[in-house]
Amino acid sequence: MYGNENFTLITGASMGIGKAFAFECASRGMNLLLIALQEPRLEETKEDICSKYPVEVVTYGADLTEPSAVTALFQYCLQQKIKVNILINNVGMGAGGRFENISPDFYLQMLNLNNQVMTMMTYYFLPMLKESSSAYILNMSSMEATLPLPYKSVYTGTKNFIYAFSLALREELARSNVKVSVVCPGPVLTNPDGLKRINSHGKRAKLIMLMPEEVAKIGIKNLLQGKGVIVPGKVSWTIVKLMKFCPTSLKMKMLERVFRVYRDH
Questions:
Q1: Of 3.40.50.12500, 3.30.300.30, 3.40.50.720, 3.65.10.10, which CATH number belongs to 6-262?
Q2: pLDDT in tens, 177-197
Q3: Residue 76 is among the residues annotated as catalytic for this protein
């Protein structure tokens, strides 16, 4: 039982940006509830954080796409009296290639993890967040949410959903104690497959590539400042702003040429 202590809940917390969020929050003295698949690296992440920072770290291993997994997690928090005042919906997955070349099962899994899990996590934990004097929700989208990418059509669709959902919910909760932010990074080096994708674009991708630790630092800083849309990196921010003034037909032709490298993946 954890009593009156507040916790920051992070999904997908055992690797990549989620793990970086965990370390960034711990460095700010936040207690953590880390959610990821039940694998050794989840406990390894906990041990690493506890060896560096004097915070409470609780781990919960689960596949959040399983039926009732989110409700089971919420009930666990109630039973253990874990009070969540910051919810970071980070977990997600993606893929590139021609739309018809990827299996429908993979698409359903992506839609479930990227959108359904985030929506249900927000739904169940929002009443708890409202009980805190100050609370935050941070949803992980992508700069691709504003730049629909050919050959990543379903992935960018899921990220656009997160972007729109976050901005709409932010306005709904504007007069409450809960602040909602959405973070929209460009390419982030999180795993070997990500490195292959970045290398396929050559030097232009490396100009806007960030490390997970950079995204986490910028994301948490701006979240706590109450910023709505967070685009880490000056180059990525500039691209997003400039593309707003580009005619849609021209923008889509440009994006098709740039991301044609994914066509045969």
A1: 3.40.50.720
A2: 999 999 999 888 765 555 455
A3: no
